[in-house]
Amino acid sequence: MDLTLYGYWRSSASWRVRIALALKNIEFNYIPVNLLQGGNTSAEYLQKNPLGQVPTFVDGSFSLTQSFAIIHYIESKYPDGPLIPANIEQMARMWEIAEIVNSGIQPLQNLPILDLAEKSGISKKEWAQTVINEGFVAIEQILRNTAGNYCVGDQITVADICLVPQIYNAKRFEVDMSAFPIISRIGDALNLLPAFVKAHPDSQSDAVIGK
Ligand SMILES: N[C@@H](CCC(=O)N[C@@H](CS)C(=O)NCC(=O)O)C(=O)O
Fold this sequence. Notes:
- InterPro entries: Glutathione-S-Trfase_C-like, Glutathione-S-Trfase_C_sf, Glutathione_S-Trfase, Glutathione_S-Trfase_N, GST_C, GST_Zeta, GST_Zeta_C, GST_Zeta_N.
- GO terms for molecular function: glutathione transferase activity; maleylacetoacetate isomerase activity.
- Belongs to the GST superfamily. Zeta family.
- Strands 2-1-3-4 form a 4-stranded mixed sheet, covered by helices on one side.
- By secondary structure, the protein is an alpha+beta fold.
- It has 9 helices and 4 strands.
- It is globular.
- It folds into 2 domains: about 5-80, Glutaredoxin (3-Layer(aba) Sandwich), CATH 3.40.30; about 90-195, Glutathione S-transferase Yfyf (Class Pi), Chain A, domain 2.
- Bound molecules: glutathione.
- The site of glutathione has 16 residues, from α1, α3 and α5.
């Protein structure tokens, strides 16, 4: 097997790539990078990922970082079971939702930012709840017009791939999900699907259950 994913069980960006691979039934080697023990800042790992983040995806001699770039690559190389709608308006809407998570929420609730917030006197929980709530209010509003079974109609897309890990984080930080009925309904439906079960943090070799 020539495909390798460097990830961390509870990293939402790694989780997105795992979901994409699972939905397309693509097998890969999984190499855990322990973020809590600084595995992402070792000299060896920084050669693969200069930002010192996960995921990193390696296909033979081709190495790639950034979950969206990786998912694009996977989608282009393995087009069966498309994760991006063919309809351009739906595609644009999908990226709109995905980017709210990717740019508007996830980077702001990353470990180093949570540490900074705490040093500035705002608890990690309050900070995370604020940024997740703001993003989810926007997404819930968009979903009122776009959702079918999933975020954009009935096709599972990159928007759903981003949403599921973000809901997990929202629950970790005790965000009141009753304000987000469509997000909750879609998340519940997706979490029952075998690909999402396979990609879940608790199913990974580096999972620390009960944390
Ligand atoms: N935009 C990047 C985000 C990657 C990212 O934020 N990874 C986090 C885990 S979800 C990470 O490695 N954090 C460790 C750190 O920043 O020290 C992507 O989509 O791949």
